[in-house]
Write a structure and sequence with these properties.
Blueprint: H1 3-12, E1 19-22, E2 26-30, E3 40-44, H2 56-76, E4 81-86, E5 95-101, H3 122-125, H4 134-151
Antiparallel strand pairs: 1-2, 2-3, 3-5, 4-5
Helix pairs in contact: 2-4
Length: 153
């Protein structure tokens, strides 16, 4: 079973502490590392590796819901800009990475907030000091959940 499917099984069992909300085509979860504050994922319910493997109606709804989720993430975490990616090279299960960006979020890299998130070394993004703390996680889930209620029925 893939890592994303395992995380979805934890959601279904009520054991995924990062879970925010279930939508028609996927699950919204807070990222377990928060180098970019508000980093969120939208995991497809269906185990597919590519968008074009989804039935057209499911794919269109998945894209629509991702758009609603990214708007809620932008508002909940006061993003100046959003970066949205569907990669799947590491975890071959369709899922979106939603990164709220701030103009100064890469200053430590001499980039003045310009450039893709992946210019930050993975070891730095996933470092222990970037792991979300339980009290922060609760606040983030509440903020995003409250925003999602405005956008997703």
């Amino acid at each position: 079973m893939c890592l994303i499917c395992q995380r979805i099984e934890l959601i279904k069992a009520g054991e995924n502490p990062y879970f925010v909300k279930e939508l028609e085509t996927g699950y919204v979860v807070i990222g377990d590392h928060q180098y970019f504050k508000g980093y969120t994922l939208f995991l497809a319910k269906e185990h597919v590796t590519e968008l074009h493997h989804m039935e057209t109606s499911v794919k269109l709804r998945f894209l629509e819901e991702m758009s609603l989720v990214q708007e809620a993430v932008a508002k909940a975490f006061k993003a100046e800009k959003m970066n949205i990616e569907l990669l799947g090279n590491g975890d071959a299960h369709a899922h979106w990475h939603l990164f709220p960006r701030q103009s100064d979020d890469m200053n430590g890299h001499g980039l003045n907030g310009r450039g893709p998130v992946w210019w930050v070394p993975w070891e730095e993004m996933a470092a222990e000091d970037c792991q979300v703390k339980s009290h922060e996680l609760e606040q983030m889930i509440k903020a995003l959940s409250d925003e999602l209620e405005k956008y997703v029925v």
